Amino acid sequence: MRLDHEFTVPAPPDQVWREVTDPESVAPCMPGATLTKVEGDSFTGNVKVKLGPISLLYKGSGEFLEKDESARKIVIKASGKDSRGAGTAAATVTVTLSAEGTGTKGKVETDLNVTGRPAQFGRGMISEVGGKILDQFAQNLAEKLTASEEPAATAATEEKSADATEPKPKLESVKPAPKEAEAIDLFDYAGSSVAKRLAPVIAGVAGLLVIVTIIRLIRRKK
């Protein structure tokens, strides 16, 4: 299936380009994703997904097929498989960045093939959920870019005032180990769409509870 989405980030295109072409930098911004290995333009990782009470872990790999800096266009091919054999996912993703005011607009074209449990939700719901996940990604990316600018500004201020003070020894910074990402709960992202689809089931359960309650009341009267 073909999916089209857009996102915006309040940062210049050159800065966003550097982030999205670096797997180690961009992976923590994607909900549920944890990067495990990077070799050149290839990478491996996993994505945790929840379908309500059902937990799925997709282990997969990907590679950059194209990096056109002049056009700010990248093409990524990725595939993954549920660790329990409940389904597979394969996608070719094309991301094109362009300036929009003082920020960046990203256009994402995805050719997606999904099998197993996630496929039961259909194209419309997968597109809706994918759009919301991409919005969360853009928000995380914007927060990351903003956070990286603050230390740089602080360092510049400290350098200006360094002439009037004695130099102090710098402490070595230890890079923390990457944190395991929390699972994406697709029911949370789908919202009303899933609720509508589950409405008949919820109604059936409610009806069953009513019947059970009536039977209990009759038994008590006897």
From TrEMBL:
Organism superkingdom: Bacteria
Keywords: Membrane, Transmembrane, Transmembrane helix
Stretches with biased composition (Basic and acidic residues): 157-176
Stretches for region Disordered: 148-176
Protein name: Carbon monoxide dehydrogenase
Membrane-crossing segments per the record: 198-218
Pfam families for this protein: COXG
